[in-house]
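Section 3.1: Structural characterization of target chains.
Under the original work plan, the team committed to producing a structural model for every single-chain target entering the pipeline before any wet-lab resources were allocated. The record below documents one such target. The sequence was received from the expression subgroup and is listed exactly as submitted; it comprises 50 residues.
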Amino acid sequence: MKIKAIITGATGMVGEGVLYECLNNENVEKILVIGLWICGCSDPQRLSVQ
């Protein structure tokens, strides 16, 4: 089963860890990141930065 994730606070310590885990998990097909700062991560197929 593929997962779509929404992560708020991805520039913080915990949120950043969650983001990296999602990027490394093949079951996560799409990630929406909502934050105040640019997270510095990129995966054009799965990561949408808002």
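The mean pLDDT is 81.
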